[in-house]
Specification:
Blueprint (H helix, E strand, L loop, with lengths): L69 H6 L16 H5 L9 H17 L6 H20 L6 H13 L1 H5 L3 H20 L4 H7 L7 H18 L1 H28 L1 H10 L8 H23 L17 H28 L1 H8 L3 H28 L6 H36 L3 H26 L4 H18 L2 H16 L4 H4 L7 H4 L6 H15 L9 H10 L37
Helix pairs in contact: 3-4, 3-12, 4-12, 5-7, 5-18, 7-18, 9-12, 10-11, 13-16, 15-16, 15-17, 16-17, 17-18
Length: 595
């Protein structure tokens, strides 16, 4: 049964919601009551009535516009921008960083502040243990931010997080600057990887540098956190500030009194506390700001990491079996022929080969090493391109790829061994230098990468990018821990004991890490080799936290020793029984080793 129409509602006079059009008069009331009560006036449209006395609809005087169906509203195209400006689309970085971090916690802010203070106080004197001391509060800031964001510690994140501080041990142990710089750069890369958690090749590469993308956004994040806490707890911040100020004043006053009263206490206090002067205030202020910005960027990244794995590289077009395998099979045959000749040389002796080729001993060893090093690098490039265009039809294709590339990796490993043997012969004849030990270490690491590629062919390539990155970090750490300058000095001293040939001019430019080995040379070679190092140690007044263990050990060995007259004839020690050049005077110039 259809509901009855509700009674019409008369508009009340003077109602605020209705206005009459101009030029019309209000209807006069019917004094005779000719119309029934509640009846509509003539010409007024009839409105349906509600049955149960619900809310009455207002009277309308014109036709209502038709309602737009829901499907039409959804299909309506967006309105054009009247100003002609393009619409703002989200950036690629915002897509890769899906979540914005929440409010920065108080623990994170305190850790960031501690990083800035320690950077300003400790990093102005040099690099040593202080770098590790500054990294600790920065890592705590990232830890607090990650915990506040609900992130969990994963195995590979733990590997990167442990590897970063481990690499910072190298500047604390070694006085040589070149392995320390390599360790610091690698520690930064591992720390960035720990914050991002990348897995793919592109993600590992970009994740190692991705901390720099958080610097700008982290400044605003930190400023908002400080402003919120200052507004919400002014009284508590005031109490903390006054307490810290009073403690600092008391330490300065009584520390000065005690230092002036006892010379031993003054010496201990001076060696423990940083020497802060007004002259280096701008430099220390810059270091403090750098520490705050770095720790804040690390905390922001830990709370909202960029997912670099979202950037993918499309696989190459799969090639046919013959088209793909034929060049690689030919390459394998070439490698096999080369290695067969190498085996013949090894069995027949180098003297016979040099007599047949009219090459000197150094030319044969030197040329072979550099060519084989480039062959190893190019082989890795060939393997990467071959995997990109490998056939992907089924099990037979996978077997073909594994067989061809596995054979190539195995043959390249033998090439790596041959290159290292060439370098060993060259070093035995003419001594070890920084360049020679560096390229030998790189060749050794490339051999490790080949082993990892072969293992990935058997067990799967899921962990290969992270394994290669971890192997690079392990290589840098081992290179710093073995003390390259110390190894160079030891090898040259040992070679002098056999051949009575040594390059004193080169050895005197090494760092303090070489002092234990150079101290065993006979006079006047010892004085000539250690004169420059001793002068630098005397002129250096670095505090304990900026002094490496290698430098401290050199100070203990040399003490107050003065070379004196024994170092007067050093320029003449280049040939004869007391010394010699690294190579023959008639030796051709080696563009790869100018030292």
């Amino acid at each position: 049964m259809a509901p009855e129409a509700p009674e019409p509602k008369e508009p009340a006079s003077g109602a605020s919601g209705a206005s009459e059009p101009s030029g019309t008069s209000r209807a006069e009331p019917d004094p005779a009551g000719s119309r029934a009560a509640g009846a509509p006036e003539p010409g007024t449209p009839t409105v349906p009535q509600q049955r149960h006395g619900g809310p009455q609809p207002q009277d309308t005087t014109g036709p209502q516009p038709p309602r737009i169906p829901a499907y039409a509203q959804r299909a309506r195209p967006p309105q054009a921008n009247p100003w002609g400006q393009p619409r703002q689309t989200p950036s690629e970085l915002s897509r890769l960083r899906p979540a914005k971090p929440g409010a920065v916690s108080g623990a994170t802010l305190w850790a960031v502040l501690a990083t800035g203070v320690l950077s300003a106080l400790l990093l102005g004197e040099g690099i040593g243990l202080n770098l590790l001391m500054v990294a600790v509060p920065a890592a705590l800031a990232a830890c607090f931010a990650a915990r506040g964001a609900g992130r969990r510690l994963r195995p590979w994140t733990a590997v990167w997080a442990v590897g970063g501080p481990a690499l910072l041990v190298v500047p604390a142990l070694r006085d040589a600057g070149w392995p320390s710089l390599l360790a610091i750069v690698s520690a930064f890369a591992l720390g960035s990887l720990a914050l991002h958690g990348s897995r793919s090749w592109l993600g590992i590469f970009l994740g190692s540098l991705g901390l720099l993308t958080s610097v700008a956004e982290s400044l605003g994040w930190g400023a908002r956190g400080v402003r919120e806490r200052m507004a919400g707890s002014r009284g508590r911040w005031g109490v903390v500030s006054r307490s810290v100020l009073v403690a600092v004043v008391l330490l300065i006053v009584f520390g000065t009194l005690f230092a002036s009263a006892d010379a031993a206490f003054a010496d201990v206090l001076g060696s423990l506390l940083p020497d802060v002067s007004v002259g280096d205030s701008p430099w220390r202020f810059f270091l403090g700001v750098l520490g705050v910005v770095g720790a804040l960027a690390a905390a922001y990244t830990a709370a909202a990491p960029v997912r670099w794995d979202g950037l993918t590289v499309r696989p190459g077009k799969a090639r046919g079996r013959l088209e793909w395998a034929l060049p690689l099979v030919v390459m394998n045959l070439l490698f096999a022929a080369f290695l067969a000749i190498q085996l013949t040389v090894l069995l027949g002796g180098y003297d016979k080969v040099m007599a047949e080729t009219d090459l000197s001993y150094s030319e044969y060893a030197r040329q072979g090493f550099w060519q084989l090093l480039w062959a190893t690098l190019l082989t890795l490039l060939v393997i990467a391109l071959a995997l990109r265009w490998a056939p992907r039809g089924g099990p037979r294709d996978r077997t073909l790829v594994r067989g061809v590339l596995g054979t190539l990796c195995l043959l390249t490993l033998v090439v790596v061994a041959s290159a290292l043997r060439r370098m060993d012969l060259y070093v035995d004849a003419y001594g070890l230098t920084r360049l020679r030990i560096s390229v030998a270490a790189v060749e050794l690491w490339l051999g490790g990468v080949l082993v990892l590629i072969m293992a990935a062919g058997v067990f799967g390539a899921k962990l290969l990018p992270r394994a290669v990155a971890a192997s690079a970090a392990v290589g840098v750490l081992a290179f710093g821990l073995v003390s390259p300058d110390g190894m160079i000095a030891e090898q040259n001293v040992e070679r002098y004991s056999r051949h009575h040939s040594i390059d004193i001019e080169y050895l005197r430019g090494l760092s303090a890490d070489a002092v234990p080995a150079l101290d065993t040379l006979p006079e006047p070679l010892r004085s000539c080799a250690l004169e420059e190092i001793q002068r630098e140690l005397r002129n250096s007044d670095e505090p304990w936290y900026a002094t490496s263990w290698g430098e401290a050990r050199a100070r203990d060995i040399l003490g107050d020793w003065d070379p004196g007259y024994r170092a007067r004839d050093c320029p003449g020690l280049g040939s004869g029984e007391d010394g010699g050049e690294r190579g023959d005077p008639d030796e051709p110039y080696d563009p790869y080793d100018p030292y």
